[in-house]
Amino acid sequence: MRYFRIVLRKLAWAVFTVVFVICLNFFLFRVLPGDPARAGIRDPRLTRQAIEAIQVRFGLDKPVINCVESLNPFTPGDCLINPLQTQFFIYVSNLLRGELGISYHSNRPVATILREQLWNTILLIGVAQVLAIVLGMTLGIAAAWKARTPIDYLALLGSLMAWSLPTFWLGIILLFWGSTSLGLPTAGKSTPGANYATLWQQWADLGRHLILPTLTYTIVFLGEYMLIMRSAVLDVLSEDYILTAKAKGLSTFQILKDHALQNAMLPMVTIIALNLGFTVAGAIQIESVFSWPGLGKAIFDAVGRRDYPVLQGAFLLIAVAVILANLIADLFYSYLDPRVQTE
Amino acid sequence: MSAVITSKAPPPATGFLGFWHTFRRNKMAVVGLFMLVMAILTALFAPQLAPYDPKAITRVTIEDIYARPSAAHWLGKDDAGRDVLSSFIYGSRVSLIVGFFASMISIFIGGVIGIVAGFYGGRVENLLMRFTDVMLVIPDLPLTVVIVALTKPSLFNIIFVIGIVGWTGTARLVRSQTLAVKERKFVLRARAIGAGNLHIIRYHILPLVLPLLVVNTVLIISLAILNESTLSFLGLSDPTTLSWGQMLNFAFTRGAMSAGAWWVLVTPGLGIVWLVLGCTLLGQGLEQVLNPRLEAHHLAAGPGMVARRLGD
Amino acid sequence: MIADGVAAHALTDISFTLREGEVLGVVGESGCGKTTLMLSLLRLLPSSGRITSGEVLFMGRDLLSLSEAEMAEVRWKNIAMIFQGAMNALNPVHTIGRQIGEAIIRHNYVQDKKLVDNRVAELLEMVGINPDRRRQYPHQYSGGMRQRAMIAMALACNPQIVIADEPTTALDVMIQAQILELLATLQEKLGLAVLFVTHDLGVVAEMCDSVLVMYGGVTAEYADVDTIFNAPQHPYTQELLRAFPDLSRPTGKLVSIPGYPPRLTALPPGCRFAPRCPHVMERCHQERPPLHTPSPTHLASCHLLET
User: What is the ipTM of this complex?
Assistant: First the structure.
């Protein structure tokens, strides 16, 4: 019952954060010079019909919100208007219907574009994160167990080096090396124009395209996860209950597995959750370098093309995804730590 | 039976001399400081060190584009026929300027929010920390990209945006330290004799939060440098300032890859790694110096525990 | 990466015998090496510690000459330990039942899963805990309950020896009495040999058969409990007794021993008690006293016993 209440509270908090992000997303784009809707009307790439369609759809002739006619430049407006007839409300109700605007560049709905790309990003991040977490934790445990030995120092130095690498630069270097000496594909998620005889071939091609981006990603995050795990395990191993376990005659392996791992997982989960933002930052850079058709690439392209609706949509999607992932990590934490559930 | 215990006694680090004494023997911190000082010197003496002026207008022939390293141009030339070594040397300036000023902004915001939240507690703390939590969840880089893309990408804007986005970690750290310090005896005593809040913060809380803040600053600088280079690489840099990220952006988007011009791709990256690694080592080292912890634990004892017996 | 080491002889020349069913009290001020001694017996010293010489004979076998794997077999099955501060000695993320069962499974005390669970329930019942609470976590137990669970855990594999390292510190007085009573009952019922570390002489008088008084990592005096209380030979023992209220002498003055026990990194060259000893002589500062035997079962290290 208590656990249920905790879940409910965390859920409410996540919803609140999402609402905050929606507001931020709306006002940020209206306060700063690049108002997506208005800039769009001036955008020469749009036809007259398209402009009119946009105006109706996003209520651009209406005030931003009650009391505010426009935010850039700031002009106060009527406060007694029907809130349903404001840009903010129309924006929110469009969002609820899954409508994120229309790309200036391709004239396609942003939601359609981003939907395909979201899955590609999840694929890339998913594979690489699992690899980085598993390897990082294993190395972290080993380094902590062998603390203050050459193995530990080597792992420590390697992790700090990996941490200091700019993700995009590591990507460039690996791309350069992988394409010239290993003959791996340099861009996208499939070979252009390829016809696959079997599903297996298609998967194999996807796999080949995944190698370099995944490798880059794993290296960058491996170091960080190793450092966190090392310090968490070190803390746990100096606890008294480890001495108890040893006095019980358990072997080193049993102690690490049954007593150190789960306890050290607690700080690990917290920090992985806190670092989800970095995960996204990594994805933007890696997708840009490897032309991986994901959300990060969408942001990169949108910046280059000044395609504000796509930028706005991608930002919202990423922020919401991170909030959700954070919620999951939070719930996982309370699952791991019995003290949270039953106190 | 007889047994010995080796006790590790770190010498007391009081005052600057004591601190320096401990600092000097921490390899990580010393190496990090050396790397950072080297980078700062390079930036300061860029005009003296650079063999060419990267802003000078020169006639460029087709052979100059991505020219290989030679005796005259140690690191070759870039897509516009400019000397890579000179651009590299000047590029250190942007990284250091952005790293320094952006982190100052972050540290200031995070420090003020953390101290105020930790010191005053109650509703103020609740509000500030909830806000920090929300900001913590919003991914930094996309937010930075959006703001910089919407405004004019000038050096000032980049510093400002990186600064106002990266304060959340500091705020949480400073708050927890303030909370810990607040309950110490001398703070309670100062309050008992009627010292004002500002006086207590200034003379009792700040000095004890400061060491932590210094360590944090070094790490924030490295993050800011990474962020700046990423923004520049994504094409969001001030086109008139030459930075390492921008060099990589030009090289990557203007065919250095297919030209096989590794010198343009590798050099600026090494610069970033040098600076960030320097900051990281210094930060980690400082943390060990200011907050030493015994890294021996219950599983560290090996078969060597029972030494060869002398009795028989 | 700061390395500075000072080797300190935490323990020197300690020797004692523990017979079947005997309760040996180990007494001394904090920091005199009691816990180090107990951990040495199980070879559980921290990595900075090292046993430099000596023997630990258990049923004719020297524990110090066993391999690490053989030693792991002896731990808990033959010699179990009740740690001080059960809150930290229990893993917060596992249930009490699991932590007790773990020891049973490790030493194959019973094989079947069902039997392990039964044994856990039986043990908890024995220490006065409702067996249904075996599925609860340490934080759901009170301080006294945790110590009881710790005792149940120590008895899990029916060991011959139980080391109780200040099992009642950090508990309030009422609970302390309950725990001590429980220990005494179980000791008698199971015929355990107990090494009882404490600095409470009252408990020693009540529970122990013999007493080892330690000072600064060495044996001050070792004898049966009557001798220690009625005819102590070492000035430190005498001082300890004077600092302890005696109901038979209600008018007697309580005297605390001035000064502090020596730090192990800065031991005096002669007798370690010399700086605080009321009977100190010139040679005490230069020469370490050997162990004298006032009677065949009585050891004391003091120069006074020579004359």
Answer: 0.87
